[in-house]
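Onboarding guide, step 5: your first structure request.
Type a short instruction followed by the sequence, for example:

Predict the 3D structure of this protein.
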Amino acid sequence: MTSTVNDHNLRFDAKKLGEMLGVPSNGFDVYVREDKSVLGDERLLELTYKLAPKPHLTESRSVQKGEMMPLHQLLFWFVIKNIVP
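The system replies with structure tokens like these:
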């Protein structure tokens, strides 16, 4: 991530952000990859189901915010409103 705040240029990656916030960042690089095939079809389907539990899911797909479980929506909005800025 790069940003400018009060004429100061900031640059940090997921690992550094995790250190600053005191949260683990292991696996973040896999999460943001466009090619998620490294996870395998079964794992991707499992992750899709955790974010948007729909009994008819047979293959992984992207999940819209409105489809997410309330807790995942809260986490998403917390990151967007508090961490990203």
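Each response can be followed by summary notes, for example: The chain has a mean pLDDT of 80.
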